[in-house]
């Protein structure tokens, strides 16, 4: 059975409309992800000390991976591991990720990371 050109026009329009809607939804989803990443900030995460015989970095990465849902996301988010003076790590997290990290049982405290600088380099006549 042959179709006339007039009968295929509505079908083509429907397919174009679906393609535009799909592209628009994908672009909006990508923009939402980019906007969420834009609101990411650096945090210091204090955790319980790692158990004896367990690698410190692997332990801390496991805590972050459990919160974020994958080891790949945890590796992308983690900035630095602390193990000498404190047990913890710094990571770049979005607000939802921050809330997930706070819920982990090994996490004691989460603070925003801040860089502090001296207002003067002179201390009691020493420069």
Automatic annotation (TrEMBL):
Alphabetical keyword list: Signal
Domain of life: Eukaryota
InterPro entries tied to this protein: S8pro/Inhibitor_I9, S8pro/Inhibitor_I9_sf
Secretion signal span: 1-25
Signal keyword on record: yes
One Pfam family named in its UniProt record: Inhibitor_I9
Domain Inhibitor I9: 64-118
Name of this chain's protein: Inhibitor I9 domain-containing protein
Species in which this protein is naturally found: Miscanthus lutarioriparius
């Amino acid at each position: 059975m042959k179709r006339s050109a007039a009968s295929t026009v509505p079908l083509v329009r429907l397919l174009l409309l679906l393609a535009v809607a799909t592209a628009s939804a994908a672009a909006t989803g990508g923009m939402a992800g980019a906007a969420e990443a834009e609101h990411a900030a650096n945090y210091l995460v204090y955790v319980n000390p790692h158990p004896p015989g367990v690698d410190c970095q692997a332990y801390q990465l496991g805590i972050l991976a459990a919160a974020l849902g994958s080891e790949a996301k945890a590796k992308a988010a983690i900035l630095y591991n602390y193990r000498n003076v404190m047990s913890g790590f710094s990571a770049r997290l979005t607000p939802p990720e921050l809330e997930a990290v706070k819920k982990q049982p090994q996490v004691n405290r989460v603070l925003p990371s801040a860089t502090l600088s001296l207002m003067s380099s002179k201390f009691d006549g020493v420069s």
